[in-house]
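Quick review question:
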């Protein structure tokens, strides 16, 4: 920490060297962070990594990239999704790792980062990655992220600068999270066009995501396994589209996400199964009164849920 004093020996500014000898962060009274010439790399150039790069470039940053296979990297270079191929991670102040959970940890453990650099993952499970990162001393500062945006398609060719516009970014923290790094991530998130920042622990993230995302993918995939899926043209409306939109999951990616959050996903499947069985029993028993009561309970719970948006464990900031 470098503290500057005025002529009367009163402290007037504080500076913290956090990324390198050439890089300074000015910490003012409201703890915002001002970056100077930040060098950014995106590792993993799929639809999310490519869109992160484009959103950062739209915000005025230069972004380099790297990828495990050659073709996406070549596409990213030829289409100005990244500025350059990243050759040495030691030269970057900020590295976004846009890979699946296991590959994320392999990438982090298998590379050397600049002292004080910020490394952020964007995985759909957080505790698994967080535990792996903080299992040993690191020379970089880690902040977990999860952008709540995507498409039904994948691949760098589907990346776009506005994918995250108005979307939510979940940022997780624990006792080991560096405050200045955390504020830098929040600033970049705002600059990339996100509309909401959600702050919580990795444990809360995984429990909520098991319900809001992973269970929805499980249910959609299970729903289309009914034989009536054939010859549905002309019989479908909005509800069918809503139920089946995410049925065509990437089984490799989603199986990994389910397994790395297995206890939460299994619990939510169990709760859903019990609720479905309650409805089925009422129908099988011809008990209309019971069926109306069960359906009314769901309606009331849904309506009540819209009145509570955050609690002491979840902090939400609307950016726009």
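Suggested answer, residue by residue:
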């Amino acid at each position: 920490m470098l503290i500057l004093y005025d002529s009367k020996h009163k402290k007037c500014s504080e500076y913290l060297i956090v990324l390198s000898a050439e890089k300074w962060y000015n910490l003012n009274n409201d703890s915002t962070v001002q970056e100077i010439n930040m060098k950014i790399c995106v590792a993993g150039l799929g639809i999310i990594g490519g869109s992160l790069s484009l959103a950062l470039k739209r915000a005025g940053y230069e972004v380099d990239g790297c990828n495990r296979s050659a073709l996406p990297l070549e596409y990213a270079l030829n289409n100005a999704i990244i500025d350059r191929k990243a050759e040495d991670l030691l030269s970057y102040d900020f590295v976004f790792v846009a890979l699946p959970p296991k590959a994320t940890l392999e990438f982090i453990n298998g590379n050397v980062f600049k002292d004080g650099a910020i490394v952020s993952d964007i995985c759909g499970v957080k505790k698994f990655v967080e535990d792996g990162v903080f299992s040993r001393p690191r020379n970089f500062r880690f902040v977990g992220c999860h952008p709540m945006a995507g498409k039904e398609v994948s691949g760098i060719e589907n990346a776009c600068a506005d994918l995250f516009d108005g979307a939510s970014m979940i940022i997780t923290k624990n006792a080991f999270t560096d405050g200045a790094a955390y504020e830098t991530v929040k600033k970049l998130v705002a600059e990339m066009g996100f509309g909401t920042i959600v702050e919580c622990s990795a444990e809360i993230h995984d429990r909520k995501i098991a319900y809001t995302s992973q269970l929805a993918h499980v249910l959609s995939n299970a729903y289309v396994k009914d034989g009536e899926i054939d010859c549905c043209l002309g019989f479908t409306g909005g509800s069918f589209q809503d139920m089946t939109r995410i049925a065509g999951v990437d089984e490799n990616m989603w199986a990994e996400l389910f397994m790395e959050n297995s206890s939460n996903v299994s619990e939510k499947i169990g709760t859903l199964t019990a609720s479905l069985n309650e409805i089925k029993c009422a129908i099988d028993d011809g008990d209309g009164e019971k069926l109306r009561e069960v359906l009314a309970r769901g309606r009331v719970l849904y309506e009540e849920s819209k009145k509570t948006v955050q609690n002491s464990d979840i902090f939400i900031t609307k950016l726009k």
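Why it works: The longest helix spans residues 262-284. Residues 1-34 have pLDDT under 50 and may be disordered.
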